[in-house]
Specification:
Radius of gyration: 18 Å
Structural class: mainly alpha
Number of helices: 9
Strand content: under 5%
Oligomer: single chain
Largest sheet: 2 strands, antiparallel
Number of domains: 1
Distance between the termini: 62 Å
Order of helices and strands: HHEHHHHHEHH
Number of strands: 2
Shape: globular
Length: 143
């Protein structure tokens, strides 16, 4: 076997480096929440009827200028492995259940538009729950 540098391999093959997340799930959620909170008055588009979509359509559901778009616009989250702004990719990347993601992006909670501050609060709530139920109780009722 002949040893070749990565540059040499580019001439004979397509070499793709797989992103290895360095941030924890909670850190990724906190980063998304921070991005949403940065422009809290920004009007974002909700995804319509995610709970009524078939699993296949839900995976590829997206909307321009959605809370998912805010996450995908961030170079840091893309470096961590966020591949696009679809519902399925956000569920995978942020390790969310359908119920959790539905609560952040679906139009049945807010109508067709969402204020970024509202989405930020929903993501913040999920991140706090991820730190443990006791931490969530403390933060919710004692602060």
């Amino acid at each position: 076997m002949k040893h070749q540098t990565l540059d040499q391999l580019h001439f004979v093959a397509s070499v793709k480096a797989e992103a290895i997340p360095m941030m924890t799930r909670v850190q990724r959620l906190q980063r998304w929440e921070e991005l949403l909170a940065t422009d809290s008055d920004r009007c974002l588009n909700a995804l319509v009827g995610t709970e009524r979509l078939s699993p296949e359509l839900r995976e590829i559901a997206r909307s321009d200028n959605s809370p998912l778009t805010v996450a995908f616009e961030d170079p840091q989250l893309r470096r961590e492995g966020l591949r696009d702004d679809t519902y399925g990719e956000a569920r995978r990347f942020f390790e969310l259940s359908d119920n959790q993601l539905h609560g952040v992006v679906c139009s049945c909670h807010t109508g067709t538009t969402i204020r970024a501050r509202w989405a930020a609060a929903r993501v913040r709530s999920i991140a706090k729950m991820s730190n443990g139920f006791l931490a969530w109780l403390r933060d919710t009722f004692l602060l």
